[in-house]
Design brief:
Elements lengths: L9 E8 L8 E9 L2 E6 L9 E4 L4 E4 L1 E6 L15 H12 L5 H17 L2 E8 L5 H12 L4 E6 L6 H4 L3 H10 L6 E6 L11 H10 L3 E5 L7 H9 L8 E4 L5 H10 L2 E4 L1 H7 L6 H4 L6 E3 L11 H22 L11 H15 L16 E4 L13 H8 L5 E6 L2 E5 L2 E2 L4 H19 L1 H8 L27
Helix pairs in contact: 2-3, 2-14, 3-5, 7-8, 11-12, 12-13, 14-15
The chain binds zinc ion.
């Protein structure tokens, strides 16, 4: 018998609960889950007849984390692009090899990404799925998301065609009619970028989104790709709607931030991505003063990790780093950090829920959907002392500390092990995809793609001659 069979109430006992209502922390608190909802939160709750219990003492109970921008299909290429720039990414996926991906390859990437998210306590992911060049690819993406017990938003995209073309194709409408049927675990958005052409060729795609009543998510403020022009065009044509998610928003002017703030959009910050790909500086330090809602995202596992602990950590680091740097340039010293640990935990949970329009996610309170994470690892020397729970989540915890995960009231991970998920099947799928891609590309192109040329440079002349240390002129910069 499954210890956590459907319908059996579940109680998380004695944890440190982060309800995500301001900086509130509830110690030695129980959380009761009945069906797909949280039904009670408090100390010493009476368990209903037959309830399963999970000992949360010494651990942190927080809402499931929400990633608002991840290209899940690319997880099949995990780590391949670790040394890429954005230019190399565009060449590889958009121009050269993205079109090799078959429906089963999209399925393989999505399945692995979906499982990986659950393992890391990410209970909702917006799948920024821009490899859907045929309806079969789209069906494969949706099949994969519905084959794993997490919560997903399929953000439908296709980098191989202009958005005005694929969004107005009958097959696209047909897909939406067939597959987007109100399943609480599968939301829907439309994903495309606005390139700044003054004739605004993206207008028909925005009209389709409006007609379907779905939100648009768009890579905005990406150095060399999308700019203030795209934002201005959206604004002037009346398509900056509440619910729009502006991904990165890293190289935009204050004027664009004003337009986003005024029209009810939010920004999805992918700090790990922005820090190494080159979209622009991770923008939280700038957008904080515009009052724009923020959520966090990981972008793609072709480069980076797929867990929001990294997102929280790097976002705090990038924001504070910039604040210090700006102050030093003026000869000043920052004595009090503006961005706090609880704020990034908020962005990783409640911020994500707000971005996707789900008020029933991202907080812990009676009536909310039971998407929950228990961070607890008694065997780890990092698990105590637990003095500052928000700081602990942001700077101390990692995916290996995710003890239990619930989605929609269902236990999908317990005692650090995934529940009811066959990793071997996912591995076999990904292996087939890698074999196929390697075969199509050839070994040389495969190796070259993974190992871009390293720029050369010279070590500076040094006026000091104390030792020969670092005198090697071919030193890699
Ligand atoms: Zn992206």
């Amino acid at each position: 018998m499954n210890e956590f069979e459907a319908g059996r109430p579940l109680i998380l006992r004695g944890g440190t609960v982060l309800p995500m209502e301001g900086r509130e922390v509830l110690t030695s608190t129980d959380v009761l889950v009945t069906g797909d909802r949280i039904t009670a939160v408090g100390p010493g709750l009476e368990a209903p007849e037959g309830a399963a219990e999970i000992d949360a003492t010494g651990g942190i109970v927080m809402p499931g984390m929400i990633d608002t921008h991840r290209h899940m299909w690319q997880t099949a290429m995990r780590g391949y692009g670790a040394d890429w720039t954005l230019t190399q990414y565009f060449v590889w996926y958009y121009l050269e090899y993205g079109k090799l991906f078959r429906p089963e390859d999209v399925h393989a990437g999505n399945t692995l990404a979906a499982i990986e998210a659950l393992d890391a306590g990410v209970t909702t992911v917006v799948d920024w799925s821009h490899g859907l060049r045929t309806p079969d690819h789209a069906d494969a993406a949706a099949d994969a998301l519905q084959g794993v017990p997490g919560r997903y938003v399929l953000a439908y995209g296709n980098i191989q065609q202009p958005p005005a073309e694929w969004t107005t194709a009958p097959e696209f409408r047909d897909f939406v009619r067939r597959r987007i049927t109100g399943d609480d675990l599968l939301g829907f958005q439309i994903a495309f970028d606005v390139l700044g052409d003054p004739s605004f060729p993206e207008q028909p795609a925005f009209e389709v989104a409006r007609d379907l009543g779905v939100s648009v998510t768009t890579h905005a403020g990406v150095w060399g790709a999308t700019s203030d022009d795209g934002i201005r065009l959206m604004y002037e044509h009346g398509f900056m709607s509440p619910g729009a998610i502006y991904v990165h928003a890293a190289s935009l002017s204050a004027d664009s931030y004003h337009r986003i703030a005024a029209t009810g959009g939010s920004i999805s910050v992918s700090t790990e991505s922005e820090q190494s790909a080159g979209q622009g500086y991770p923008p939280t330090w700038a957008v904080r003063s515009h009052g724009i809602p923020v959520s966090l995202s990981m972008d793609t596992s072709v480069w980076w990790s797929g867990d929001l602990f990294s997102a929280m950590r790097t976002t705090l680091g990038a924001d504070r780093s910039r604040e210090h740097l700006e102050a030093h340039a003026k000869g000043e010293t920052v004595t009090h950090a503006a961005l706090r640990a609880d704020q990034v935990v908020d962005w990783a949970t409640r911020g994500g829920a707000q971005a996707i329009g789900r008020d029933d996610l991202g907080t812990i309170a009676p009536g909310q959907k039971a998407d929950l994470v228990l961070i607890k690892n008694d065997a780890s020397p990092v698990s105590f002392p637990l003095l500052n729970p928000f700081g602990h989540v942001a700077f101390q915890a990692q995916r290996g500390d995710v003890h239990t995960v619930l989605v929609n009231g269902r236990v999908v991970k317990h005692e650090h092990r995934l529940v009811g998920i066959d990793l071997a099947v996912a591995r076999a799928q990904v292996d087939r995809t890698i074999d196929y891609l390697k075969g199509e590309m050839g070994q040389e192109a495969w190796d070259k793609g993974m190992n871009p040329d390293i720029p050369t440079g010279e070590v500076l002349d040094n006026p000091y001659t104390y030792t020969d240390y670092r005198s090697d002129k071919t030193h890699r910069l």
